[in-house]
Amino acid sequence: MGRATNQHYIPxxxxxxxxxxxxxxxxxNELNFPFMEKLGLRCIVxxxxxxxxxxxxNFVDDQDIQxxxxxxxxxxxxxxxxxxxxxxxxxxxxxxxxxxxxAIMCNLGRHRTGTVVGCLRKLQRWNLASIFEEYRxxxxxxxxxxNEQFIELFDTDLVRIPVDPPEWL
Length: 169
Known about the structure:
The chain is of the alpha/beta class. It has six helices and five strands; from the N terminus they run ββαβαβαβααα. It has helices at residues 33-39, 54-62, 84-94, 111-123, 128-139, 145-153; strands at residues 16-19, 22-26, 43-46, 66-69, 102-106. Strands 1-2-5-3-4 form a five-stranded mixed β-sheet, with helices on one face. α2 links the parallel β3 (43-46) and β4. α4 (111-123) runs antiparallel to α5 and α4 (111-123) runs parallel beside α6. The longest helix has 13 residues, at 111-123. The protein is globular, with a radius of gyration of 16 Å. The relative contact order is 0.18.
């Protein structure tokens, strides 16, 4: 008698559901690829300054996912805060429904990803206490006050809202 193989679906570090067809996480590894495949991603917004690892690049190619590496827009290292230009470029992609399902990622899905999601929550008119609670939940003990300050001071009027935005905006 043949044995049925049990497929395990393991989400990447700091995986989370942001909105319908919009997810957040750290860089997935081989154990996470079956889970990620189930999401049917069309697009990944990659916020880390370095390239994703080769296994991740192979997965993106195999799944025909568009990878937008926005982290290279910044000169500096991973601990530098995210910039307004990177947030606005990310929003151009995030608010385009043609890119969904989509994932927002950085190495661990904490700081850069958390800042983008925090600014999105501000655009959705969440109160700051709720935005910071979500940011801190993913950042854990490594909360960066500069990121929270960036979210608080982010000017949502700079965001170009498309004619046909996602229903959650």
